[in-house]
Automatic annotation (TrEMBL), chains A, B:
InterPro entries: Gfo/Idh/MocA-like_OxRdtase_N, GFO_IDH_MocA-like_dom, NAD(P)-bd_dom_sf. This is Uncharacterized protein. It comes from Eucalyptus grandis. It comes from the Eukaryota. GO terms for molecular function: nucleotide binding.
């Protein structure tokens, strides 16, 4: 971790912002009494602020992200994203970096896993009536993508992660998506296919019990994860793998300990990136905006396929 | 279990037949030296034979099943099935009856699981080169349904099981099925949807590592099974359930012991059915041909959707 001090500005009042700032401050021995400002502009105008976190509704991202960028601030956006959001994806991956790296190692192992043939990902949670009535994620003028943007985004990201970020050839939204009265997606799924015969499906919903699955099936091995969004245990991530096993081969479970709670790890990883840029003049990584844009392309295709009555949509990078 | 003696005739020479006969004979203390006949007709003509097991290629099912029925024999057919095959489905369910009943109890529990919203099933195994070249399951004139009939059949059956055998409204085969040179399906998947917003997907393949998943997501609970075809441990079946749990709620694993190896259980269950008919004049259950026909309807729809270039197919019971 870089030892350069990074000053964060937070625009917004979502729960996650307060939680993250407090947790990070506590974990890293920051002085209490973080400065509060009366307006977002005041934060952006503060010369000592290095990085800005925007826990705002998606529809407000563009305005404040552009302003923050103009003020030369590093930027963390909440997903779903629709503009240049280099850092956000980095954070998503960083939050589960230790087990993600081990999983990637397994599915990249030609002998243990072989060529990837099929993936299925699922992220659902049962939103309560208050959420379904009032949350910004179900308001067409705020987060019009609904469950697709909020939960499906992770499903698509995980599928692309498994495919080394190679875009599928076509994407077809499955019949039976559910919408609220305002037309915001509450539940949907899709199937994707690649030139080489790889296939994938995902399902996301605000209307079902918490489920956070990745299943990746290779020619020689299988990977199962049941908590890919947030590990069931804060300081432990787990997945199970099976390799060249038969009907008597119960998959082995792998547990990975992380030294910090994941929210702290997210911020630590981001600080480290910003620190490197600030202290050493490194250039921001271009890998993350590319991955983020690909996820967004698939999101767009899911919407387009719905508009076209579930016709397949070609994905052109 | 009925104590009526049931005499089995076996037509065919598949591995499973020899294994099952030997296992059953051993488990039940049958005298060694089971009678062998020079022709299938001779078995069917034997008046003392109560039941006939036909481990034959699908294309030969119709002929020998009809002949056996004409000779008043009870019948076990291997799937995939295309004619009246009441007993076979019973066996498929019976083989995992004890844990299946517990799983069904969970997903039928309105408080613990709630309404079913989404299912995903997957059955894949990596066939070896000899299988892919020579097995009857990849020959268009024998088992033209390939992986769909052999592996997909279980996936579809499991989805219908989860839906209380209510047929979906439409079925759309996913793009990217794989075929051998003779046009037999080696890998495919599909998505299904019901009137009430329930959805399901499945994937089956001869080209991927052994994977045998059921995921059922209800409004209040989630069920995961990773060995729904054949339990990893012969005398133990397991599944995990989560109910109204949050991000800190690791699913509980449930283990069920079975008193007999599952192949013996299959035959025991079938014997019990036949015994009841023979000893008490019970009528064969009509539930199983109905379920079997529904599975076959979905299989037909998968094929039709492929022929129609992945258009959705309406399922009309």
């Amino acid at each position: 971790m870089s030892e350069t001090v990074i000053k964060f500005g937070i625009l917004g009042c979502a729960d996650i912002a307060r939680k993250k700032a407090a947790k990070f401050a506590a974990d890293h021995g920051f002085p209490p009494g973080t400065q509060a400002y009366g307006s977002y502009d005041a934060v952006l105008d503060h010369l000592e602020v290095d990085a800005v976190y925007l826990p705002l509704p998606t529809s407000l991202h563009a305005k404040w992200a552009v302003l923050a960028t103009q003020k030369k601030k590093h930027l963390i956006l909440e997903k779903p994203v629709a503009v240049d959001v280099a850092e956000f994806d980095k954070i998503v991956e960083a939050c589960v970096a230790s087990s993600t790296a081990r999983m990637k190692e397994f599915i990249s192992d030609g002998r243990a896993f072989g060529k990837l043939r099929a993936m299925h990902t699922c992220f659902t949670f049962a939103a309560d009536p208050v959420f379904l009535e009032n949350d910004i994620r179900v308001k067409p003028d705020l987060d019009a993508l609904g469950a697709l943007g909020d939960a499906g985004w992770y499903c698509i990201w995980a599928i692309l992660w498994g495919s080394d970020y190679e875009l599928p050839r076509t994407m077809t939204t499955s019949r039976g998506p559910l919408f609220n009265k305002a037309g915001v997606i509450l539940s949907c799924g899709a199937s994707l296919d690649w030139e080489d015969g790889r296939v994938a499906t995902f399902h996301c919903s605000f209307l079902s019990h918490l489920t956070m699955d990745i299943t990746a099936v290779g020619m020689k091995g299988t990977l199962h994860v049941q908590d890919f969004i947030i590990p069931f245990q804060e300081s432990e991530a787990s997945f199970s793998v099976a390799s060249e096993s038969g009907f008597d081969g119960k998959p082995a479970e792998h547990l990975f300990s992380t030294s910090l709670p994941q929210e702290a790890m997210m911020v630590k990883e981001f600080s480290s990136l910003v620190g490197a840029i600030k202290a050493k003049g490194s250039h921001p990584e271009m890998r993350w905006p590319i991955i983020s844009r690909k996820t967004q392309l698939v999101i767009d295709a899911v919407k387009l396929s719905i508009e076209r009555r579930f016709e397949p949509v070609e994905i052109l990078g």
